[in-house]
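Z., the sequence and structure:
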Amino acid sequence: MAKDFKQTWNDFCDELKLVGEIVSNQKDLSETDEVEGYRYLTRLLRLALEMNIEHSNASHPSFYSLSHETAKIGADNPDNIYLNSNIDGSFSYEVYGNIGEVDYLSFGLKENRYSIDGTMVSMGEIDLSLMAVKEDGSFRLSLGPEPTSQNYLHLPPEANMLIVRQTYSRRMHQKHSVVHIKNLGKSEPTSLLTAEDLTRHLINSLAFVRGTAGTFLAWVKEFKENHKNALPLGDQSFFQAAGGDPKIYYLHGYYDFKDSEYLEITTAIPECEFWNFQLENYWMESLDYRHNPIHLNSKTAKLDTDINSVKIVVSHQKLNIQNNIITEGRSNGAMLLRWVDARDCPIPDIQIKSITELEVQDA
């Protein structure tokens, strides 16, 4: 078996080398886009190994994150803390904890097929507005064929992932939610890792990298072609089929403008629970929000309260003006506006203007 597995490992390494063609086969990439593309593949592999090896046991579920500060998927939200758990529709589970100071909290049952066809269709959703929570912030949510607590999601056989979205207006300063999950049924004792197990995990991990990268590469090419310097509504069912929250309007776009220019985005603000706007790179990873102002939300943006609207200034380098976010110097990439539980969906007006013009106006 050791000899056989050595071949499996060699096959994995050879296939990983071929995964690089996802980047090398692209035409007309800037140096930044190409370098970040290879980094993106290493990040996806890290996430895939966490999901498929370290947290693969649905009988003994645990949470991990498929998007965080240094590994990102599909327009990840800088205001979010994401939790994922691999589950099995034949079991029943209890999710419990405390909501902390979260602004928006949702739980979504998904059929994760990123490694197959790039989809992650919703099997059931519930958010904080629909849940009973105790005065101290504690909650319980049951997942299964029958409810075992006041808060309940029916767990269909096809569901294989639970996604928890915690959204914070000022994430670094708020008390985060605490969320746990346990299997309510009888679990088999954990067993030692076998060569067959590891072979399967490695194959699934590479399939996840290929499927995920392929899905969002197709998206960004569509946005570059048809959403350039614009934020149209787009097909919401398409975005939600890839794991989106059904309570969110997603307005995806693609920015591309010169160093001497800036993007001015003006929009009315609908009645909604929360909103935010963010910049991403070519691979639809949010930019480095740890160190740079790359997004704004309903609490951090300065609004025109007289007409309930906001003006956002996107530039390549930092400007001395309010609501300014930066591309970190890259000339192009994706961008996204979210309206969470909005009563309607305003479409922003976007104009490209000269930096000189901005300086004259600001003088």
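The mean pLDDT is 95. Residues 227-362 form a domain with the Jelly Rolls fold (CATH 2.60.120.600).

Let me know what you think.
H.
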